[in-house]
Amino acid sequence: MIRILNIKAELEESEEDVLRRVVKKYGLKNVRSVRICSKAVDARRKSCVHYVYAVEAECDNEQKLINTEKNVVVSEEYVYRFPKGKTPPFRPLIVGSGPAGLFAGLVLAENGYRPIIIERGKCVDERVRDVEDFRRSGILNTESNVQFGEGGAGTFSDGKLTSGIKDMRRRRILKDFVRFGAPEEIEYIAKPHIGTDKLRNIVKNMRFHIETLGGEVRFQTRLDDIIEENGRITGAEVVSPSGRETIETGAILLAAGHSARDVFDMLKKHRVLMEAKPFSVGARIEHSQELISKSQYGSFYSKLPAADYKLAVHLPNGRSAYTFCMCPGGEVVCGASEKGMIVTNGMSDFARDGKNANSALLVNVTPEDFEGVSGGVELQRRIERAAFGLGGGNYLAPAQTVGDFLANRPSVRGNGVEPTYKPGVVWGDISACLPGFVSESMRLAIVQMDKHLKGFASPEAVLTAPETRSSSPIRLVRSRQTYMLSINGLFSAGEGGGHAGGIVSAAADGIRAAEAMACCWDNY
Questions:
Q1: N or C: which terminus of the chain has fewer CB atoms within 10 Å of its end residue's CB?
Q2: What CA–CA distance (Å, rounded) separates 433 from 446?
Q3: Which residues in 384-413 are b (16+ Cβ under 10 Å) and which e?
Q4: Where are the beta strands (DSSP E) in 267-423?
């Protein structure tokens, strides 16, 4: 199989026409298969925005093309193989049904290990209803919300599948998403995403598949404690609506999100090694999507999907700031999971057809900014409580226009961009809930970022605070080889343990942890 690179195409040219043109131009003989394997927008010159494709083909004259064409290379198909180990005398237990937990459960189930997955939140259909009820009423369900429930926090996001990891498992992950309902284009477009609307069915389909293979998924089942004997896992204590229960097992994979702060508290009692790690704090910044698309694509913006952006700057005060989890055509949502606290996040549907674009605008926080392993969590909580107070209760979030924020004056109203956050916002000064170094750094960053993305510092843009949970402030210390924590049989994977960031990297981490578990059965 060969890969033909750097194929330029006008925006109006269909994918089918591109394939026909490639077959003709390169004289592919006896074509057995031909498909697009990469598609990206080249907007470096605003006067000539176009697509750039790569195409994979299987044909008779492959070697000749490799020898004569500079942009033709060998393409090797990746085949995922799970390391088959000895079947253990117990069923492995997975805590959490986010990307790490789901994909760990998937590969274990497909290899005959019949895992049990416990999820403190509800199944996705019930969870969606709880989130919508909260957005209307301001009454929070602390066990079923944007953070907790089937699919994890990523279920209420843009469903972004971009990742900087070099792990070849990424191909398997994308294929699995397609297998369970995602559009085929995510396997080849440069910046794939699924959208919250499609993710909801995909995670449900994954669960059904795991169950057909003998796995089990238990909702509204929270890990309360682990059971160990002589430094070895023997079971778990869980709590569900039916009461307290002991699940006997020799292997537990912790794949809970970093909002499950009670898991950290429980692990401390067992003296599990953990350490403070850097994380980030800031707010959601919201612009009109038209402004962002025009800035990125110029006059071609109406011919292209909603534009995104990714910005990062180093500041004169020694801090760094960056945008994260950018949601084109999306909305700002409340990610609270504890009463009396405000957290913001962002999500988009697959179509990305909302009127606003939003992104987290974050400033780095280091362990030097707080005390102790749990100091980062406590800093998050102080910010979230302060934001709840500024909003006046009922989970209304503090908001401020960028113009007022830069001028260091409270906002009394919006003046252009309408905030999408529900239950609603209270205009004022978001600095009152943020550490001083964060507000200062955000002001510096907005001005600098405007040099890279014209309109980023638009006075009409809106800041909704706070964004505190972009990553875990704690890392669970695990073995690089076995993924095991300081208790034999206790494993960790995903964002909650501080090992990943984003859907794909968390999913890959979950698969690697499952592989490590399978290779360790003989040691239990």
A1: N
A2: 18
A3: bebbbebbeeebbbbbbbbbbbbeeeebee
A4: 274-276, 279-288, 312-314, 320-327, 331-334, 344-347, 356-365, 397-401
pLDDT for the residue numbered 521: 73
β partners of residue 284:
360, 464
Spatial distance between the Cα atoms of 511 and 317, rounded to a whole number of angstroms: 40
C-alpha distance from residue 443 to each of 309, 313, 400 (Å): 19, 12, 13
The two three-digit tokens of residue 255, written as one number: 């794949």
Contacts 24+ apart (CB under 8 A), 426-429: 426/390, 426/391, 426/392, 426/396, 426/397, 426/398, 426/399, 427/399, 427/400, 428/390, 428/398, 428/399, 428/400, 429/398, 429/400, 429/404
- Cα 30 to Cα 435: distance, rounded to the nearest angstrom: 65
Measure the CA–CA gap between 346 and 334, rounded to whole angstroms: 8
Q: Over the stretch 249-307, which tens digit does the pLDDT of each residue have?
A: 999 999 999 999 999 999 999 999 999 999 999 999 999 999 999 999 999 999 999 99
Poorest-pLDDT segment among 132-141, 444-453, 513-522: 513-522
The token pair at 461 is: 């843009």
Does 524 have pLDDT greater than 70? no
DSSP string, 218-276: EES-EEEEEEEETTEEEEEEEEETTEEEEEE-S-EEE---TT-HHHHHHHHHTT--EEE
At what angle are helices 196-212 and 124-137 packed, to 10 degrees?
Answer: 150
Q: Which helix H or strand E contains 56, and what residues bound it? A: strand 50-58
Reduced to 3 states (helix: H, G, I; strand: E, B; else coil), residue 9 is: strand
CB 336 within 8 Å of CB 468: no
Tell how far CA 50 is from the center of its chain: 28
Neighbours of 8 (CB within 10 A): 12
Contact 384, 341 (CB under 8 A): yes
Q: Give the CA count within 13 Å in the CB-facing half-sphere of 169.
A: 21
Per-residue CA distances from 261 to 347, 433, 474, 499 (Å) = 23, 21, 10, 16
DSSP bridge pairs for 34: 57
Q: Which structure tokens are listed for 167?
A: 């792990």
Distances 436 to 146, 278, 372, 382 between C-alpha atoms, Å: 28, 18, 20, 13
User: Which residues, at least 6 apart from 436, have a Cβ–Cβ distance to it below 8 Å?
Assistant: none
Q: Which residue has the tokens 């859907």?
A: 503
**Which tokens is 438 given?**
């964060």
C-alpha distances (whole Å) from 482 to each of 359, 366, 371, 443 are 36, 28, 30, 44
- Say which residues have a Cβ less than 8 Å from residue 289's Cβ, sequence separation at least 6: 306, 307, 328, 329, 352, 354, 355, 356, 357
Residue 475 host element (H or E) = strand 474-476
